[in-house]
Amino acid sequence: SSYHKVLEENRLLYNQVQDLKGAIRVYCRVRPFLPGQQSNGQSTVDYIGEDGNIMIVNPLKQGKDARKVFSFNKVFTTNATQEQIYVDTQPLVRSVLDGYNACIFAYGQTGSGKTYTMSGPDLMTEETWGVNYRALRDLFHISKERADAIKYEVSVQMIEIYNEQVRDLLVNIRNNSQLNGLNVPDACLVPVSCTQDVLDLMKIGQKNRAVGATALNERSSRSHSVLTIHVRGRDLVSNSVLKGCLHLVDLAGSERVEKSEAVGERLKEAQHINKSLSALGDVISALAQKSQHIPYRNSKLTQVLQDSLGGHAKTLMFVHINPELNAFGETISTLKFAERVASIELGAAKSNK
Ligand code: ADP
């Protein structure tokens, strides 16, 4: 019967989830050269191994010193498709239907492909759909498959964190007043029943995001955007209820500002971004080391995601690399941040055994 099918699926999923539990995974994605930005065909990425290694070459150095290897759970080459990017993420997305919380982050400097991974390119076809849409499509698909056994309700929230202030991007939908607290739970929760509903909401969210911003691209690269998908499932046999949520987080650009540029508003933005990204690193690190004190309160980002970082929640971070020579400095600092996050996970996994 379909109920037994669900039980069997749950068992399989449970095993996959056990693999992921408590761990953070870090995947690295190198974006291709864009037309007109060929850097004379030269790339800072020298080699990508199937074992999760990536070798970076310093264009200004010679010999052995010029090369450095970083290791992750996986490294995707420039020709990886959106479909390939999503495949390994699927078990994590599916676990949300079983009551788990999960976070997927996109990290990297502006222009490295964060939005491409999470949403897709500006002109999208189904083939170039990003993680957001694929995740939603999956959630709706599976909840339909299980409809005989479990009744699911899906709802979404969209917020933006800019200069340590949380803005509800779906606020107009229910005419809610200003977002009072700091938590995602305070933001508008909009029920959805198909992928198209969500696409429509995201358009509204994007529009709201642009309000007050001089240039949308500028603004969006300096704010974190969080799309949260809540799932509530009622077991039709036992009547028990489970709840899970998935946060899809397109982080602000991780680039450091030039000293000469760092004045006024720009400096303030940069400080807020630095603060929240390092707070995120600190929280992940504290969780992995099983510290008594997890410093969630050091930034709005970590506060907002508190319930979904740590405990039984699962975290996945896509770090993005721009292979152009002039991005070398940022590439190294991105990889160092990511490796810090990733190696912590490996250490923690070892000590669990
Ligand atoms: P970010 O969100 O990090 O600022 P974007 O996602 O906007 O970066 O990517 C910058 C540009 O590069 C966009 O024009 C985007 O379409 C393109 N791009 C990024 N990643 C890829 C990819 N994997 N394949 C093709 N084009 C990409």
Automatic annotation (TrEMBL):
This is Kinesin-like protein KIN-14F. Belongs to the TRAFAC class myosin-kinesin ATPase superfamily. Kinesin family. KIN-14 subfamily. The lineage of its organism: Eukaryota, Viridiplantae, Streptophyta, Embryophyta, Tracheophyta. ATP binds at G108, Q109, T110, G111, S112, G113, K114, T115. It comes from the Eukaryota. Residues 23-344 form the Kinesin motor domain. The chain holds residues 422 to 774 of 1119 of the full protein.
